[in-house]
Amino acid sequence: MIFENERKLLGEQEYSSTDYSLIPLLREAASIRKKLGRKGYLLDAYLSAFLEAVMPLSDYEACEEGFSDATEFRDLCRKAVGQRPTDPVVREVYDENGWISSFQESSTRTELLQALCLDRKLSVFVCNFMDKWKNRIGGELDVPGFQTLYQRIAAETGEDVMEKFNLHLKQRFMIAPCLSMFLQGMTCDLLLALITEDLETNRKVFQILMDHLEEDK
Q1: Residue 208 φ then ψ, to 5°
Q2: Are the CB atoms for 49 and 146 separated by under 8 Å?
Q3: Cα 205 from Cα 118, distance rounded (Å)
Q4: Would you place residue 217 in the very low, low, confident or very high pLDDT band (cuts 50, 70, 90)?
Q5: Is 159 left (phi over 0), alpha (psi -120 to 50) or beta?
């Protein structure tokens, strides 16, 4: 059972199924460097470039940015329920869901609109995040040079060896990828919306949405 207990909710299963050991990883790197012989410096350069590029990519910042973007979007939805929405996606969703206006509480209308819009807006938020953070990586890492290093090493060791090594690097040093943390930040704000209780009906937003979807069948 996925949510069987507190430990599973905290992610213990994912931790136990992944090897986060550092020394075996460095031993693997040393083995690759040894295979390269006089070209061992290529592996040193590759690993150094990777570590220096990953270090500034703060998972916390990505999560915070996701929460901030979602909060700004909530403000946009709040303004939209009081007047004609200006955002085309919000306007389209608002027009398609006239039943939202039947609720007297503006906070309820806001949270309902936010929840209904998010699926259509998510790809926009993701694209904006990726564009911004790609530039950030570009400032830390010479991507073409990094790829060249990979190709030169793989030509000597075999691509399968390097792909296995890259997987281990990712598992150890990119445990929670920035995009995942960005989406988690957005999800934290969405959770706040879904558990908001409508004062008039004493129903939470997620219940109201389910009621509507049930009636809409």
Answers
A1: -60, -40
A2: yes
A3: 14
A4: low
A5: alpha
